[in-house]
Amino acid sequence: MTGASPADWQSWSAEQYGTHARFVADLAGEIVSWLAPRPGERILDLGCGDGALTEQLAATGAEVVGVDASEDLARAARARGLDIRVRDGEALDFEAEFDAVFSNAALHWMTRPEKVVAGIRRALKPGGRFVAEFGGHGNVAAIATALRATARTRGGDQGLASPWYFPSTEDYGTLLGEHGFSVRRIGLYPRQTPLKSGMAAWLAVFREPFFAQYGEERTVVAAEVEDLLRPALCDAHGNWMADYVRLRVEAVLA
Prior knowledge:
Helix content: 25-40%
Number of strands: 7
CATH class of one domain: Alpha Beta
Oligomer: single chain
CATH topology of one domain: Rossmann fold
Distance between the termini: 27 Å
């Protein structure tokens, strides 16, 4: 998981990620079905995190290599007995060795998508396929708006509120076409996602750099953001949701 400034400032804890973000792998069933991994084929899992989903792919009999920019997440993934490399997703150095490149919930952290797609193309064998799900246009719009509003009120850095890349289907399809891919299917899928650990935990995992700028006041600022979000994303029983919109895509290297 990597990207240009300010996404570069995001750090990852495998323990924290496993506790509060396990839904990332748990909700990947649909995009895995799009991939339909086959025994014996070689698959690159780009932005593999702690390897929970990589392990599932390997269990199908495919030969899977996982890559992630986080040393801590890569270490946790290797502990599962997986082949994991620490790599910058915007500077992949594989050459025509994979039948498929797969990515779940990672590409929106890589804010130079043209470099990512170029690396994916290089990594694939002729006729190889690219299957991914990540944040699309409108993803976490309410959360990002609340963060920006809080930063504006407090004189903070609004750029830290939403450092992600959330493209439309048109823009991403065009980018893939420019790099020699034929898009088989692509779409945006709104998905209200339950947060079992609550909004505060989600913010702590995914927007640490935003709150770090407030130092000792970070807890107060987080409470202010929660107050802004409560009417839209928390029900009467205290159950929080994240306003996700996922972009799913399947493309083939022409």
